Amino acid sequence: MSTHYFIGIRIPGQTAEKIGQARDSWNLSTHKRLTPPGDMHITLVFIGEDRFGELEEIAERLGQIDQAPFCLQLAGVKTFGNPETPRIVYAALADSPELMELQHTVQQQLEPLELVTDPKPFVPHITLASRWKGGSLSENWQLEELEFAVDSFSLFEIHPRETPRYKEIQTYPLKGGA
Question: pLDDT digits over 80-114, tens only?
């Protein structure tokens, strides 16, 4: 199995712990995988495997991004897939022009490369549970409207059989901005 990659924002430890504690209180036994707090992130662009040997160039291009740090706020809990049997339960994020700008800039930096990124529209989220396994779904999900700072993003390598699953290869501080 080949290694896969993505570009994302790691959720700060204290925020991730609070999200994880809230999620654990919901008893989501309907899903096979609960995301550990240390793996909580926002995917900006999913790359998949590096079929064309472009990882070095990806890393270099990401280093050219110039954007100021910003804050994000959680905005409740939502799902992807059939509402009765959702494949993913996630923490939604309040609208953020800064996050949308960062995602767009990352995508633009990758356009000249041969890699094929995920064509689905960007829906900012933090996956809390995935892989529906059955049972009765209780949607009494309460999540504090936490706010957290985003001062970097990273290039991640995915290790599906390890914990943590997502390892940062390189981190890019947000420092500038026009």
Answer: 999 889 999 999 999 999 999 999 999 999 999 99
Give the distance from CA 17 to its chain's centroid.
Answer: 15
Is 4 a catalytic site residue?
A: no
Q: Does residue 178 lie within any of the structural domains?
A: no
Among the listed residues 4, 31, 104, 125, the single catalytic one is 125
Number of domains within the chain: 1
Is 159 an annotated catalytic residue?
Answer: no
Residue 113 to residues 51, 61, 104, 108, Cα–Cα distance (Å): 11, 10, 15, 10
CA distances from 138 to 63, 75, 76, 84, 135 (A): 43, 19, 15, 10, 10
Q: Which residues form the domain of 61?
A: 4-173
Which string of DSSP letters, residue by residue, matches 109-155? Answer: HHTTSS-----SPP--EEEEEEEE--SPPP--------EEEE-EEEE
Domain CATH number, residue 69: 3.90.1140.10
Stated pTM of the model: 0.94
